Amino acid sequence: MRITLDDSDIKEPTIKTHSGKKLSTLKSTNLLKQDSPSKVKKATKIILIIAAILLTVFLSYSGYIVYKAYKAGELMGLNLKPSDIISQEVPTLKKDSSGEYTNILLVGIDTRERGNLLNTDTIILASYNHKTQDVILLSIPRDLHVQINPDVFWFQRINSIYVTYEGKGEGKGLPRLREVVEEITGYEIQYHAMVDFKGFEQLIDSIGGIDVNVENSFTDYQYPEGNSYKKVSFQQGPQHMDGKTALEYARSRHSLQNSEGSDFARARRQQIVLSAVTERVSLSSLLDPKSLMNLFNVVQDNIKISEFTINDIEAGIEVLKKFKDEGETYSFVLDPSAGSGKLLKEDQSYAIGPVEGLGKYGNIKKYLQNVWKNPALYEDDPVVRVYNTGLGYTETHAQYLKLVENFPYIKFIYTGTLYNDKESTVSYINKEKGFAHSLRPINDFIKPDSTQKPEYIQNSLNAEDITILYGKEIVLEENIQGTE
């Protein structure tokens, strides 16, 4: 933080009587002339002593904070240079080669109470768009089989990379995991951060807990606790969670209710918790000494971050301001249902691999390029049915193929002929709520004559999310009037 003062910032203090009336400023010597020189010197000395004490306390406290910040930063990866402090350059985050995105790999590791180095249960790629101020969160399943060692054609679960490479040498785990995620997604990563479960709890407690809207009620009777298990339950609806509760919500994966027992459901909940943390952290708390001290005490022991500088911190605060004012968060889980089921497949042992084959990520990269281009559409992930209502079977099928080509990995279904005699192209939402983000780009592409459900449709058809009706072109009759 840089502070500059000009002459207008320095105001002359005034002296008031008990009644509150101004007598004079310290520039006036009328009051001082009434006291003897010895009294003046004594008063001045007392003031200087008090000022010195206050300054000492302030500097000591500030110095302690700076020291704690420095030590925490040193442990996390802060590269502090004198030039960063006095630099006049506008701070900016590192960006990818396109200059549009800053990508961060977020990793959660299970060390539990035993302190053993276990697997990375949470792998999230967070991408910030500097043009739109939006954030995309992409969860990568821990059971995705990847090539652990680039020199050995052998595939294992991605969550074993960190522990494998840390065994080869401390500090090698995260860089290798980062390389593999870049290989899968096709996106360059500028920063990475890893937090263990203990740090996760403490981090949430240090910010006063988080507010989460639980989407589905569920109970897990096999939540790990030490060497045993315990029962955890969550009820649908909004609730405030402390660190322990939030961790249980984010980690649970053995429920048999409401499809909440899979790793993919857990990945979605982890993103919900991450978004809730972002919402909870305020800019004022980042500037509050007590809040900072709590955060420093948590992060220095439980978080590892790629090397960063003071400029990165300043730039990050500016990004947080823009995001809170203008940005949206879009969440995706790279599971077998993503991309209309064309990307990943799962076998009976819960091992996951690309549909194209192990180590082949072409379809995944193409899908993610479309997601990054239009996250709102792909987060909605609508089912769209196309009907011929008068344009003709062949002609309507040709329009369907254009939609599939322009919006790959969105589920378009050609349903055939519904009517033969209706006019105009109609595109509308076939559900009571939602999917406005989806309808907008589709309508921009097909330019329908109407976006309202026509009167001749009396039901929800096949219960799709969006319905497109291709009717005959509207023919306008020309009225030719004779001249008088």
According to CATH, the homologous superfamily of the largest domain is LCP protein
CATH class of the largest domain: Alpha Beta
Structural class designation: alpha+beta
Q: Which architecture of the largest domain per CATH?
A: 3-Layer(aba) Sandwich
Proportion in helices = 25-40%
What fraction of residues sit in β-strands?
A: 15-25%
Whole-number radius of gyration?
31 Å
Backbone shape: globular
**Please, how many helices?**
15
**CATH fold description of the largest domain:** Aminopeptidase
Largest sheet: 6 strands, mixed
Strand elements, count: 20
Segments where pLDDT lies below 50 for 5+ residues?
1-34, 57-68, 82-88
Average of per-residue pLDDT values = 80
Order of strands in the sheet with most strands: 13-8-3-4-5-14
Please give the alpha-carbon distance between the first and last residues: 83 Å
Q: How many structural domains does the protein architecture include?
A: 3
Descriptors for this entry?
Aminopeptidase; 20 strands; 38% helix; 3 domains; Alpha-Beta Plaits; globular; 484 residues; disordered N terminus; alpha+beta
Q: What would a concise description of this structure say?
A:
The protein contains 15 helices and 20 strands.
Textual characterization of the structure:
This protein is an alpha+beta fold. The chain folds into three domains: 7-65; 101-375, Aminopeptidase (3-Layer(aba) Sandwich); 382-470, 2-Layer Sandwich (Alpha-Beta Plaits). The chain has helices spanning 30-33, 37-76, 82-86, 161-166, 173-185, 197-206, 243-251, 263-280, 283-286, 289-302, 310-326, 362-373, 375-380, 393-406, 436-446; strands at residues 14-16, 22-25, 101-109, 120-129, 135-139, 145-147, 155-157, 191-196, 210-214, 218-225, 228-234, 237-241, 303-305, 329-333, 344-346, 352-354, 383-388, 411-417, 425-429, 466-470. A hairpin with a 5-residue loop joins strand 1 (14-16) and strand 2 (22-25). Helix 2 runs parallel beside helix 10, helix 6 crosses helix 7 (243-251) and helix 6 (197-206) runs antiparallel to helix 10 (289-302). The protein starts with 13 loop residues before the first strand and ends in a 14-residue tail after the last strand. Mean pLDDT is 80; it is low at 1-34, 57-68 and 82-88.
